[in-house]
């Protein structure tokens, strides 16, 4: 599947708040933009370009803002807990909402919050553009299984010292959370010999009409429960589906093959659902 010894991609030791790394988020944004109607796409681009027209207006570019400019600014320190939620089992919307309020917010509260700002007639254009940048990022976050991972290991962050041939550089290791954030996408790009945009185009082309129809709908609670189930059934396990991944393990080609289709599905679902959410928000704007 992959020439694991040929291309070595430097490992990224991601903190818990990062998801999909930049390329994964760009892929979600690109898929979403490809699923927007021309009218909504024009409104989104105009909002992201701003009054000075300097931005490129793309959802792909907007998708990484929350992990870079926002993360580097003390002004947005409040949003750190909004990138993830830890779930140890099925949780009702009421229970999850209460849990999020206890820790100054989480993904379950962030997505509807920024969606409300984006549709608000009282919000300024700058506030709506900021909300859109957060929203495109957080919808992507919600679909990374370990962003709804277990509390005890901080969504896989504490399962560390992992070696991934073809991803971790010689002498470097990573953790399970970061493996899902970055390795599965990076290895897919290496295998195919393409960049993130070509990969996004291919993923979008592979989504059939039935899948699109099934994926549209649901709420942030549904999406997070999906991620929690994927994490429990796949993300924490080796290829046999029984043995837990433990600190110090090596995740090889069989691990990639077992999990790459799930990663592709979650990226695709995030893009399709983001597009549907933006269509609903901008319908009357």
UniProtKB/TrEMBL annotation:
<dbReference type="Pfam" id="PF02265">
    <property type="entry name" value="S1-P1_nuclease"/>
</dbReference>
<keyword id="KW-0479">Metal-binding</keyword>
<dbReference type="GO" id="GO:0006308">
    <property type="term" value="P:DNA catabolic process"/>
</dbReference>
<keyword id="KW-1015">Disulfide bond</keyword>
<keyword id="KW-0540">Nuclease</keyword>
<keyword id="KW-0325">Glycoprotein</keyword>
<dbReference type="InterPro" id="IPR008947">
    <property type="entry name" value="PLipase_C/P1_nuclease_dom_sf"/>
</dbReference>
<dbReference type="GO" id="GO:0003676">
    <property type="term" value="F:nucleic acid binding"/>
</dbReference>
<keyword id="KW-0378">Hydrolase</keyword>
<protein>
    <submittedName>
        <fullName>Probable endonuclease</fullName>
    </submittedName>
</protein>
<dbReference type="GO" id="GO:0016788">
    <property type="term" value="F:hydrolase activity, acting on ester bonds"/>
</dbReference>
<dbReference type="GO" id="GO:0046872">
    <property type="term" value="F:metal ion binding"/>
</dbReference>
<keyword id="KW-0255">Endonuclease</keyword>
<dbReference type="InterPro" id="IPR003154">
    <property type="entry name" value="S1/P1nuclease"/>
</dbReference>
<dbReference type="GO" id="GO:0004519">
    <property type="term" value="F:endonuclease activity"/>
</dbReference>
